[in-house]
Write a structure and sequence with these properties.
Elements: H1 3-28, H2 32-53, H3 59-69, H4 74-91, H5 95-100, H6 102-128, H7 132-141, H8 148-156, H9 161-194, H10 204-232, H11 240-262, H12 266-284, H13 287-320, H14 325-355, H15 364-372, H16 378-389, H17 395-426, H18 434-466, H19 492-516, H20 522-555, H21 559-571, H22 575-610, H23 612-639, H24 643-669, H25 675-692, H26 704-710, H27 719-728, E1 730-734, E2 739-741, E3 749-755, E4 758-761, E5 766-769, E6 774-775, H28 777-782, E7 789-792, E8 796-802, H29 803-812, H30 814-833
Antiparallel strand pairs: 1-8, 2-7, 3-6, 3-8, 4-5, 4-7
């Protein structure tokens, strides 16, 4: 047999073995990587024994000969295995939720890596006496984390999803930071080895500058290449294979171009490219294509991860026979330094962010899981193999780095991973809470009752048909629900909390159903599903109070809206504000539909489960939210009278396209139409789908002439004068609670309410002004400071006539001055008469 056939046989055997280990890992509730390490070491020992003994076992001997020949050069480890590992991690993360936890993620990904490198280097240097730069390099190698086990635990115990996002984001970004630090220290050691070995060959300041340049350069390159790929992907038709091929090409091209041609961080470029695809890909690809793409990358990651662990564990099996006390002390020192650093960050630095309210508080039990679950995985092994294969380093340094790192990976797998269940038990995370126990028992009791009712119905129907089957009197009555044990009885607040979590979970499911029906776009479902996840976490932490606080928070404009509003007011930029308002329109309409579904779900499913009093409380909460959404939608509909109908028509057209597509597929399968006819119909549907994917235009100009005609002040003006007034009016959007005019403020403008309403607060009265009303004219005429506060009651669209434009208008249009002065005189008289009433 040739070497190629031996290698193919070895790969086939390895893939079979690692696949068989998947159900075993699930059976024993262990991370798959633990069994991979055991299998790799076992094959390493067995292969050495078979080859050394000259045993002839046919295909088994040939397979182990192939494994022995299957030694990928260490110079290929980084470019071959790292891109798929990093790209998959970035592709599967929820970028929106990642940005919610960005402060904590950056702490764990950057500060924690630096602390880990420093602690590991210090402890290893004290324990072994190795050169400090070598110890720093080892610290960089072992500072990456594998979050799979921790995420699995968080999912099993029902922890807030933000903790899983925290673990995923930390792993993704700390890989980039650690590998960049790895390259920095590797360069220092190589440069030192090329000199006389008596000191630092480079200035630390210049080294840091190079590090920053490579990091920022990697970000820019990865984002740019991913954006080019995003332009290509939608043009590849329905070929899932072509789409997957472009993304695979993107991962390797971004790594190679960055590392070999532009000389910036290839790892950072891959991570940034993956995050960009994760952020923009779902909105540019069909849902089926996006799902298929993620499946392809999951398969690539599985192969890369398995091959790395098996090959590295086989190498470790040979190394274990050569271990000296130096490596024993080294791996113990690495473990002490690494976990001490992690505990310092999680228990010492994370509370600082919590104190400044940059992150939500994390339960101490979950913090303990984050510390003990800091496993090391494939990326650490890849870096160790790269260090071991760099012949520019002295052999003792290479062996120390590689052996210590691989042993530490095995330590975390065989010690930390296998005892995570015990840690869960010690902290009580494997036990159901009182609320969960009560809910479980209630579900079981209701299920028994429903099953019994169903059986009685079957018996009655059978009895009616046979007339010879007697119904058991004991089971003839209506079954009753077993009473709740006193120790598990929940008060109303606890039951409402459970109900809110249930409703929020159902809300997310409804958004996903709308997306699958192609009624909701991928972009909108990403926003709404992320909001539902945030709401679930908030309710779990704070109950009904947290639900109300969250609703109050999302009713306020976010930072992006504020920026868009400032750009529009300051420079007249409309595109960003237009997109934000259009998003709000669609979100409000979808939310209103989903809340209607939740009302029915609450009435049908919650009352029996949690009691009628809990159902009534939840109905009140949903009702308050519905009224808030209806009010916001009503204000926007007044502001943009034709837009809501356009959005509704767009959603109906989407549904029609979906139903038509299903009908064409059915006709094709029945043989009624040919493939050519089906392709033609599908192309026409694609054209319609592309047209309906474009949002209807949202004009911030608001057809000013029509709006001015509805304002009472200018109602009697001729068309020419209205046009002149319209040229001088400026559109202004005020968000809920914004103070438009303050007492004592300068008289610089007058305002017309185009849509929405404002509240005028004086010392004696409070007046509400609505569409067609105006305010601020007294200040313009008399030049006196403002004598009232004017606050927007909701999203309010105003037409502003600034003082400088007002003076120009009065100079050329005396009839406007007369009209304004007349209304102003009436307003003064009314204000003076008000206290006497």
């Amino acid at each position: 047999m040739t070497d190629t056939l031996y290698a193919l046989l070895a790969i086939a055997v390895v893939l079979t073995v690692v696949s068989v280990l998947v159900p075993l890992a699930e059976r024993f509730r262990l991370p798959h990587t633990v069994l991979l390490a055991i299998a790799g070491m076992g094959m390493g020992f067995l292969g050495s024994w078979i080859i050394a003994g000259g045993l002839s076992l046919g295909v088994f001997t040939d397979a182990f000969i192939g494994l022995d020949k299957l030694e990928v050069g260490t110079e290929l480890f980084l470019p071959l295995f790292l891109p798929p590992l990093l790209f998959t991690a970035g592709l599967t993360i929820d970028v929106r939720r990642l940005m919610d936890e960005i402060h904590a993620v950056l702490l764990l990904a950057i500060v924690a890596v630096l602390v880990c490198i420093a602690c590991v280097a210090g402890v290893v240097h004290l324990a072994t006496g190795m050169d400090i730069v070598v110890c720093l390099l080892l610290g960089a190698v072992v500072s990456t984390t594998d979050p799979a086990a921790v995420i699995g635990i968080f999912r099993d115990v029902g922890a807030p999803k933000r903790l899983s996002i925290l673990a995923e984001g930390e792993s993704l970004l700390n890989d980039a930071v650690a590998i960049a630090a790895f390259g920095l220290f590797m360069g220092i050691l190589v440069a030192r080895a090329s000199t006389d070995g008596t000191g630092m060959p480079a200035d630390p300041t210049s080294a840091i500058a190079v590090f920053l340049r490579e990091f920022v350069g990697g970000l820019v390159l990865g984002f740019s290449m991913a954006r080019i790929a995003i332009m290509i992907l939608p043009r590849l038709g329905e070929s899932d294979a072509a789409i997957a091929s472009v993304t695979v090409s993107l991962s390797y091209l971004s790594f190679i171009i960055a590392d070999k041609y532009i000389h910036v961080s290839g790892v950072v470029a891959v991570v940034m490219a993956a995050l960009t695809i994760a952020a923009y890909g779902p909105t540019h690809l069909h849902p089926r294509q996006w799902t298929a793409l993620r499946q392809v990358w999951a398969q690539l990651e599985f192969w890369a991860n398995c091959l790395i662990f098996v090959l590295a564990s086989m190498v470790a099996a040979d190394v274990l026979l050569k271990i000296t006390w130096l490596y024993v002390w080294g791996v113990l020192a690495v473990a002490i330094g690494a976990f001490a650093a992690r505990a310092l960050v999680v228990f010492g630095m994370l509370p600082v962010l919590e104190g400044f309210r940059l992150v939500q508080p994390v339960n101490r039990r979950y913090k303990a899981i984050l510390v003990w679950g800091g496993l090391r995985g494939a990326v650490t092994i890849v870096l160790a193999m790269v260090a071991a294969g760099n012949e520019q380093l002295p052999e003792p340094v290479r062996d120390f780095i590689a052996i210590s790192a691989v042993l530490f990976v095995l330590f975390t797998l065989f010690v930390n991973a296998t005892t995570l269940g015990l840690v869960m038990h010690l902290f009580g995370l494997d036990k159901l809470s009182r609320l969960e126990l009560a809910l479980r028992d209630r579900v079981l009791a209701l299920s028994r009752v429903n099953v019994e009712k169903h059986l009685q119905q079957i018996i009655r129907q059978h009895n009616e048909r046979t007339d010879g089957f007697a119904v058991d009197p004991a089971s003839a009555g209506d079954p009753s629900v077993e009473p709740v044990p006193p120790e598990l009885a929940l008060d109303l607040e606890e039951r409402v909390k459970i109900g809110l979590v249930t409703l929020c979970t159902r809300e997310k499911e409804l958004y996903l159903e709308l997306f699958e029906q192609q009624i909701l776009s991928r972009r909108m479902v990403a926003v709404l599903a992320a909001n539902a996840d945030r709401l679930i976490d908030t309710v779990r932490d704070k109950g009904a109070k947290g639900y109300e606080q969250w609703l109050e928070e999302i009713s306020r404009p976010d930072r992006g809206f504020r920026v868009a509003l400032w750009l529009h007011r300051r420079f007249g930029f409309e595109r960003m504000l237009t997109d934000r308002l259009a998003d709000r329109f669609e979100i409000l309409m979808v939310s209103l539909s989903v809340l209607s579904e939740l009302t029915t779900f609450n009435a049908n499913s919650i009352a029996d489960l949690l009691g009628h009093d809990a159902e009534a409380s939840l109905a009140a909460v949903i009702g308050n939210r519905q009224r808030g959404v209806e009010g916001a939608l009503r204000a926007l509909s007044l502001q943009y009278p034709g837009y809501s109908e356009s959005v509704q028509q767009r959603q109906l057209e989407r549904a029609a396209i979906r139903y038509e597509g299903a009908e064409y597929i059915r006709r094709l399968h029945e043989g009624i139409i040919s493939r050519e006819v089906y392709n033609d119909l599908r192309d026409k549907l694609a054209e319609r789908r592309g047209a309906v994917s474009q949002r209807p235009p949202l004009d911030l100009g608001l057809e000013l002439q029509a709006m001015i005609g509805r304002v009472s002040l200018f109602a009697g003006l001729d068309q020419h004068t209205i046009v002149e007034v319209g040229k001088r009016l400026r559109a202004l959007v005020a968000f809920p609670g914004e103070t438009i005019i303050k007492v004592g403020g300068p008289p610089d403008a007058m305002y017309f309410v185009a849509a929405g309403e404002v509240t005028v607060h004086t010392k004696t009265i409070v007046v509400t002004l609505k569409e067609g009303d105006f305010f601020g004219e007294m200040g313009l005429l008399s030049a006196q400071p403002r004598n009232a506060d004017v606050v927007a009651s909701g999203y309010t669209h105003l037409l502003v006539l600034y003082r400088r434009d007002f003076n120009k208008l009065l100079a050329g249009r005396p009839e406007v001055r007369a009209a304004v002065e007349k209304v102003a005189a009436q307003r003064v008289a009314a204000n003076q008469a008000e206290p006497a009433r």
